[in-house]
UniProtKB/TrEMBL annotation:
<protein>
    <submittedName>
        <fullName>Transcriptional regulator</fullName>
    </submittedName>
</protein>
<dbReference type="InterPro" id="IPR012074">
    <property type="entry name" value="GAF_ANTAR"/>
</dbReference>
<dbReference type="Pfam" id="PF13185">
    <property type="entry name" value="GAF_2"/>
</dbReference>
<dbReference type="Pfam" id="PF03861">
    <property type="entry name" value="ANTAR"/>
</dbReference>
<feature type="region of interest" description="Disordered">
    <location>
        <begin position="1"/>
        <end position="21"/>
    </location>
</feature>
<keyword id="KW-0418">Kinase</keyword>
<feature type="domain" description="ANTAR">
    <location>
        <begin position="200"/>
        <end position="261"/>
    </location>
</feature>
<keyword id="KW-0808">Transferase</keyword>
<keyword id="KW-0804">Transcription</keyword>
<dbReference type="GO" id="GO:0016301">
    <property type="term" value="F:kinase activity"/>
</dbReference>
<dbReference type="InterPro" id="IPR036388">
    <property type="entry name" value="WH-like_DNA-bd_sf"/>
</dbReference>
<keyword id="KW-0805">Transcription regulation</keyword>
<dbReference type="InterPro" id="IPR003018">
    <property type="entry name" value="GAF"/>
</dbReference>
<dbReference type="InterPro" id="IPR005561">
    <property type="entry name" value="ANTAR"/>
</dbReference>
<dbReference type="InterPro" id="IPR029016">
    <property type="entry name" value="GAF-like_dom_sf"/>
</dbReference>
<dbReference type="InterPro" id="IPR011006">
    <property type="entry name" value="CheY-like_superfamily"/>
</dbReference>
<dbReference type="GO" id="GO:0003723">
    <property type="term" value="F:RNA binding"/>
</dbReference>
Length: 273
């Protein structure tokens, strides 16, 4: 028995079905196929959105009973124990009805299974969303869409929650303990894939910013040299002149410097022609 998850309060699900050896083997094969798909993701060749989309697709394959799934990535600050507003960074879904559900959850109501599982760091299950008192506004709205079951799985790396996988089904009580177990086995490697992609994207952004800063510094130094050659002043005097132009024209300092360098190049070419 698996009890390390948050079941719907005040609702007794139907008895766990007896699964045949063939069904257990089929579910295991689907899980392994999903895990193999995760292992095949080449993070440096795809964006975060593309990675989340693939993880969501593999989740539907790996989790029995899922009609669709969404994967959510949160800001590094996450949520605190008091349940402050969730810092959603990105999410991706496998079906349009889940896009509607997640928009409702994250942007309109700020309540739902994803938010709960990220705050509790535990899987969350509901077999009748319309009567689930944990999310009275969310559950009723989703049930009216004909969606009655959810399995939300936190994506954790060490002590850090980086997001969640949310599987939905139209049927009631679609996610059994067996589904929770397989989903949890999938969520561990999925969390690593998502986290590594997040780190890679952050590193690439910092590298780009550093390269831009170095290029800007080089152009500013060239502009300072041009001003000094004309005025005979110091480097500090030349830098202050660039700063005054930037403030007066409301143009970035690096852009002022680039314009000055480009103008000097044009004049030099005109003299040579």
């Amino acid at each position: 028995m698996m009890d390390d998850y948050d079941a719907q309060p005040d609702r007794k699900p139907p008895p766990e079905p007896e699964l045949s050896p063939a069904q257990l083997e089929a579910d295991e094969l689907d899980l392994n196929a999903g895990l193999s798909g995760l292992a095949g993701i080449v993070a440096d060749a795809r964006s975060i959105d593309e990675i989340l989309g693939q993880v969501a697709q593999f989740a539907v394959q790996a989790i029995p009973g899922a009609d669709g799934a969404g994967v959510t990535l949160i800001h590094p600050r996450g949520t605190d124990s008091a349940g402050e507003e969730l810092g959603i960074q990105a999410w991706s879904v496998t079906a349009e009805f889940i896009q509607v559900i997640d928009t409702l959850q994250y942007q309109k109501l700020n309540e739902g299974p994803c938010i709960t599982c990220i705050q509790s760091r535990r899987p969350v299950v509901s077999g009748s969303l319309g009567s689930d008192r944990r999310w009275p506004r969310f559950g009723g709205s989703v049930a009216r869409m004909g969606v009655h079951s959810v399995l939300a799985l936190p994506l954790t790396v060490g002590e850090r929650v980086v997001g969640s996988i949310n599987s939905y089904a139209h049927a009631r009580d679609a996610f059994t303990e067996h589904a929770v177990l397989l989903g949890s086995q999938f969520a561990g490697p999925a969390a690593v894939s998502v986290y590594n992609t997040q780190l890679l994207a952050s590193t690439q952004l910092r590298t780009t910013q550093l390269q831009q800063a170095l290029r800007s510094r080089a152009v500013i130094d060239q502009a300072i040299g041009i001003i000094r050659s004309r005025s005979g002043g110091t480097a500090q005097d030349a830098f202050e002149r660039l700063t005054r132009i930037s403030q007066r024209e409301h143009i970035k300092l690096a852009d002022v410097a680039e314009q000055m360098v480009d103008e000097a190049v044009r004049r030099a070419r005109a003299r040579q022609s």
